[in-house]
Amino acid sequence: MRVVVGITGASGAIYGITILEHLKSRRIETHLIISRWAHHTIELETGYTPEQVAALADRCYPADDMAAAVSSGSFAHSGMIIAPCSMKTLAAIASGYSDSLIARAADVTIKEGRRLVLMPRETPLSPIHLENMSKLARLGVVIMPPVPAFYHRPASVEDVVKQSAGRALALLGIKNDLFRQWEGK
């Protein structure tokens, strides 16, 4: 199994980092793209450096490397997660404007009929944001904002992050123990 992970500059870099850590622990091959603004967000919001995050992946590509393997439809993979996904990146994907490697890899993922999961981080949502999300959802893209669940009674921010990261991985068919599934009363 091979997964492409994008981390954009939206708040919530820890979601992408948690996803990478879990994929590494499962020995699932990962191909990472960190946007220019994500480098800043990683440093501002986490105890990681961008270099430490890059080391979690099997391969990390520069955000402007449009010749990277992940920019081609012939690069087979099991799906792509963008966590977090900025509204700028979401808009670029929705309009087919592949001005960065993350947007190009997402565009290729869509055109090849592979699973794409976006974890948009913005609130409140404007009508433009909602239209872009709706357009992508109609194309089969999974829009999964990292909205916390409380039925598992999270005791920490880490618990909340793991729940959303685990749900995103499950959407790619990757079994994990990062979250507890609702089993009813």
Outline the structure in words.
- The structure is a single chain.
- The chain has seven helices and six strands, in the order βαβααββααβαβα.
- α4 (87-95) crosses α5 (101-111).
- The protein is of the alpha/beta class.
- β1 (2-7), α1 and β2 (29-34) form a beta-alpha-beta unit.
- A six-stranded parallel β-sheet has the order 3-2-1-4-5-6, with helices on both faces.
- It has one domain (2-171): Flavin prenyltransferase-like (Rossmann fold, 3-Layer(aba) Sandwich).
- It has helices spanning 13-25, 36-45, 50-55, 87-95, 101-111, 127-138, 157-171, and strands at residues 2-7, 29-34, 59-61, 79-85, 116-120, 142-143.
Arithmetic mean pLDDT = 96
Percent of residues in β-strands = 15-25%
Fold-level CATH name: Rossmann fold
Largest sheet: 6 strands, parallel
Note poorly predicted spans: none
CATH superfamily: Flavin prenyltransferase-like
CATH architecture: 3-Layer(aba) Sandwich
Strand order, sheet with most strands? 3-2-1-4-5-6
Enzyme class: transferase
Binding site for dimethylallyl phosphate: 151, 167
Family: Belongs to the UbiX/PAD1 family.
Pfam family, one: Flavoprotein
Give a nutshell description of this structure.
Keywords: Flavoprotein, FMN, Prenyltransferase, Transferase. The protein is of the alpha/beta class.
